[in-house]
Amino acid sequence: MSSLVSFLRLRGDLYGRLVLAAPFNLRLPSEVGHYLLVLSGRVRLAMSGTEHVLVPSDFVFIPSSDSFSLLSDTPDRVPVRDFTEDEGRAYQQRGIIRTEGDEKQGCELLSGCFHFAPHEIDLLIDQMSAPLIHNINANNSAPWLSSVFDVINSEMSTARPGSFSIVDRMLETMLIEALRHRLQASSVGSASWLRALQDQRIGRVLHKIHFSPQENWTVARLAKVAGMSRSSFTTLFHTLTGRTPMEHLTRWRIQRAAHLLTDGQSRSVRETLEQVGYRSEAAFRRQFAAVFGQSPKAYQAGKRRQRPASKLDKTPRD
């Protein structure tokens, strides 16, 4: 799990509290890595045509940028709506949104976002498109998580200086535990690079690929890192990840290149391909187009023209 944490380069960003009185149907802004923690009451999460009933102590991580709504768990249904300007302003300035209605049928949640290095989150979304829902008080959950939940409740109710920073770190821990629980619960036959990190030999190889993509990697060199024969390494890597070593290396290099082309440093295509380990510009352009459907230069130009997705940029409160 330490390998997973170092790969994702995780940082939590707590936006604040949602105190929702029934009936409600509130659409939250779309962004990668949104999370929710239900403090009290019941609520429905509607996303991609599916509804999930959430109860107190449910921790939810939404890796994709698909839009979602929070609905009251009551027979009455109301039309979906977005934040009003006043609610958005209150959320930014005070870290709270409060709606009017039946408080007994309502709920209270924490809402925020986890930030990752851009190329890491792309591969994470590959593995986890649906919401990750984990009840931290479940029998199979880590016992200490219930204490963390109590501390979060205390920090948010007292709102002392530094509370948001403390809760940020605790929610990062919750995500790590939820991911660990998901990996342990996965079927033996399911393949993903997330599960592969649990194998020390393949974990070492993935670490080398992810942190040194510019190296002239071959299957033989990677097998040596794993301390295995080439054939045994190739078989195990494919079994655990669902891809051959070179397929994973190629995808990682292309995702890394896409980030380098659009991080504001105005790198040329030639500089970028060299930084991710390509010797042939033709091969780089061909494989980039296979993943993104356009040339590296067109991708770079398109991203420059796009405005960043709207986020709830919160005013620092600590």
TrEMBL record:
Keyword terms of this UniProt record: DNA-binding, Transcription, Transcription regulation
Q: Would I find Plastid among this entry's keywords?
A: no
Entry's Pfam families?
Answer: Cupin_6, HTH_18
Q: What is the name listed in the Swiss-Prot or TrEMBL entry for this protein?
A: AraC family transcriptional regulator
Q: Which domain of life is it from?
A: Bacteria
Per its record, what are the GO molecular function terms? Answer: DNA-binding transcription factor activity; sequence-specific DNA binding
**Mind giving the lineage of the organism this protein is from?**
Bacteria, Pseudomonadati, Pseudomonadota, Alphaproteobacteria, Rhodobacterales
Show where the HTH araC/xylS-type domain sits: 203-302
Tell me the InterPro entries matching this sequence: AraC_lig (IPR032783), AraC_XylS_family_regulators (IPR050204), Homeodomain-like_sf (IPR009057), HTH_AraC (IPR018060), HTH_AraC-typ_CS (IPR018062)
Location of the region described as Disordered in the Swiss-Prot/TrEMBL record:
295-318
SMART domains per the UniProt record, alphabetical: HTH_ARAC (SM00342)
